[in-house]
Amino acid sequence: MARLTPENEVLARTIIGRYPVPKSALIPLLHLAQEQDGWVTDEAMAHIAELVGVSAAEVLGTCSFYEMFKREPVGRYLVNICTNISCVLMGSDDLLSHAEQRLGVTVGETTPDGTFTLEGVECIAACTEAPCLQVNYRYRYKVTPESFDELVDDLAAGAFADEIPPHGTLARVRQVIAADRVAGAVEPTDGRQPEWMGDPDGGAS
Amino acid sequence: MADETSTQVTGELTITLNGTQVDARKGELLIAAAERHGVYIPHFCYHPRMRPVGMCRMCIVEVDTGRGPTLQPSCMLECAEGMVVDTESDVTSKAQDGILEFLLINHPLDCPVCDKGGECPLQDQTMAYGPGESRFVESKRHHEKPIPISDLVLLDRERCILCDRCTRFAKEVAGDPLIHFINRGNHTEVNTFPDEPFASYFSGNTVQICPVGALTATPYRFKARPWDLEQVESTCQTCSVGCRVAVQSSRNEVLRYVGVDSDPVNWGWLCDKGRFAFESVNGDERLGEPLVRTGGELRPARWSEAIASAAEVLQSTLTAHGPEAIGVIGGARLTNEAAYAWAKLAKGVLGTDNVDAQLGDGLPAEVVLGLPSATIDEVCAPGGTVIVLGPDTKEELPVLFLRLRHAVLNDGVRLIEIAPTATGLSAIATASLIHHPGETAEVARALVGQPGLGTDAGGVNSAALEVARAAIAAGGPVRVVLGRASVAESVSWTVEAASILSSIPDTSFLMALRRGNVRGAIDLGLSPGLLPGRVTLDGGRANLSGLWPTVPATPGMDTTAMLTAAAEGHLRTLVLVGADPLADFPDRDLARRALAGVETIIATDTYLTGSSSLAGVVLPAAGFAEVSGTTTNLEGRVSVLSQRVTPPGTARSDWAIASDLARALGVDLGFASVEDILTEISSAAPSHAGLADALASSSDTDGVVVPLSGPTPADALLSFTVPTSDALLPRHSYSLRLVVGRKLYDEGTAVHHSPAMTNLPVGGALRLNRYDFDRLGVAEGDLVRVIAPALTIEAPVVVDPAVPRGSAGAWFNQDGLCAADLIDITAPLTVLQVESLNGQGAGS
Ligand code: SF4
Ligand code: SF4
Ligand code: FES
Ligand code: FES
Averaged over B538-560, what is the pLDDT? Predict the structure, then answer.
């Protein structure tokens, strides 16, 4: 856990190359760091600062603005239980305290074996299916204490390894931008469209 | 207006401001236009020297641009024709009241225990525009307090109103974005990256502009209440930029300097060294009584005794060996008046021309005075090209660095630097011509396209050279910031380079000399061959007849020559006027031999230094804030210095010491006050003609640039001869050329005697490029054997990417490895050999 690995550094440089201004790559790079370690380490932020040419404080400023970037270690599975109004009406308070009992942690903590981190979240826009939760941002709807226990057992047993990758993984298929669709480093002030977008007046090429 | 020069302000508009028609400029921000017409709009985040951001909303006022009145932030709104503005309407007041109530939700209501209380914009504006009472009964934000964000600045986060002034300053003005908003919403706070402190040379400015008590400086925090402070406006003499500053004291002790906005100079900013050097004014070890050597030891003496014994030494040297046996070094710390008094004493009474205010690390006075000069504003004027051929301005002339940085980033100034190592400006330079030490003139020649050059002149990157040539070819004036990039090499190359650059049409020069009033000292004759008023001995003799008893017949020696003569036993008496050659002369071995070689040293100083502790007589001098008078900055701008406190013990001003010495020698210098001296300067020094009147009628803050009426008369203008360059030794693969510059924080008096700064100097180490590191087979932090001309020592090495291959960097006046031990001033360029201690050879 530390700086980006050599492979990820290569990837980082590719990502930076996709933007006219290196600083624009900050968020994708923070995701990359989180994917590498499961959370964003200080060392990774310092490394990103070097790569995009800003200060580490500026990277921290961006990183800390977004709650989904974790600056403390989290478990392999981050469980977010909705605590907003619809879910509360449908019993998410009970669900949350059940979850605390079951996992043996209080909200915000990680189980000693590093498998689960429990958090409460604001409305995750699935109110019709209340109460609901997310595991590494994958939804589970109309969760009851019983179905919660089942979910936890299954996760611990690796049953959802295919559907739910470890925390930090955005997707298991890496986006590859075809060479002819690379936007290239267009100056932000230059006003041109990237070539692959075609000529706005003369129709797509 | 925001960012004066970057916003194009043209044309005139008319707006209605609180019912009155007033003029406004196109592009002018409403808040600035209102201010200009005497209407104050309360604000927190807006600062006239930074870009507006609209963070605090305190400046909202009712504005009607033809679609009915609406509330708009006046710091984000440019004036438009016909705009109707009401800054006092009920709606405006209600809005201001509301904003303040919001700001105070999380802000502690504990002004009596806050350091800002009494000078706090939030407190003042709440009193003037805010609600009498808060409706907020819930609990406020709490934070650990205070947290240090640097060695000098503390942060109480719960007081912060998130105005973005400090963070904007750090990024926009200083270019050190080491503090930033962290987290979001109600949890937003200013902070640094963990373990990466806000180590900026300009951090003190954030304390000054913070509109609440969130940021405080360690040397002032809880030392005084604003209403107990008395203040005068003065000029910082820590370096030669000459920033305007308010000196604040309480009970006869200087407690704080606050930057004053001088439009032609510092724009309100100060560097941390200048700002916090006030501690050295109050230092416990200040000299408060004269010392005379009796029985081999310096013992306290009465003034009459000390003056008599100094006069006796001078008189007997004069009688036995003539005036040429006396040398006077120093004077750059003095006021102009004291410099003149010392020039009169040395040259007019003692009759010696061995007088030099510079310590072998500056530029020949003829060069300083002989080249056409430019002001800071002229250097930074939009559209021009600046060539920086000199020291790292960030380290040596910090606020000049800020001005240059602003000019490059906001005003389209093209900056070319010619330097032996990368500097604080390299990152923003249009072209950075990093060359082999000693090959400055080659680079200058290549730049102006004179024949006799290869594309690899001086080892500079040829692409960068092309960019630089194009920048000059783009036209517009060329301004050169000229100084010594390294004191480990002969000044002749710098002079040669300057004369080459002066061939570019419309070129003028800003002299990047370092010491506080070095320019004033040179102007007033503390330089060999010169008399007050920028004239030569022959050119100025006539002005002084009747005023001065005598004038030396022929030019005397500069500091290097004096120390050399002293080491050889040709100089009998050395007078050190606030100078410490052991610490400041580039070649310490020579300085040591010189001080040992003279019969007697007479020193005037504020502290006992390495050199003055060898003296026979030490006269305690009053220092900054303890004397009044004038000072001259690097542009030749004369401004008023004010006294705020009394000197320690019986320390006296330097001009009075000169007067007393003269009197003891039987001559009356003819002045009883600083004003008398200024009057005499105005009549005796041609370049300063009319100065007293001009100062009296000008703004104190901006001072006046001398000469007042155009250039000095042509016959008095100095010419200098371009030296034939010293032959340069060929480059060897096993030797490294030494480059010696300075860091802002060194072991000089200002830092050493200011407790807040004593741990800031980086310490000495030999700095090498990674390539040479590998070649020599050494590792970071290793001790290596350094073979210099005068000695062989062991010193640590560190990697410094700013140092190019084949060069070795060493800082001046640092603990550990001190560059002055390595430099051989008789060699045109000091060359070192470095050997690994673990048996490896020198890479040969
Ligand atoms: S610390 Fe002061 S200057 Fe910085 S954002 Fe907070 S209130 Fe503004
Ligand atoms: S830049 Fe020089 S004059 Fe200005 S505050 Fe710093 S030391 Fe003083
Ligand atoms: S309230 Fe839980 S998803 Fe909307
Ligand atoms: S001063 Fe205008 S929003 Fe702060």
Answer: 94
